[in-house]
Amino acid sequence: MRAVVMRESYDFSKSVKNPYAKRLKKQITIRIDEETISYFKNMADSKGIPYQSLINLYLRDCASEHRQLETKWG
Question: Shortest CA distance to 51 belongs to which of 69, 36, 63?
Answer without folding.
Answer: 36
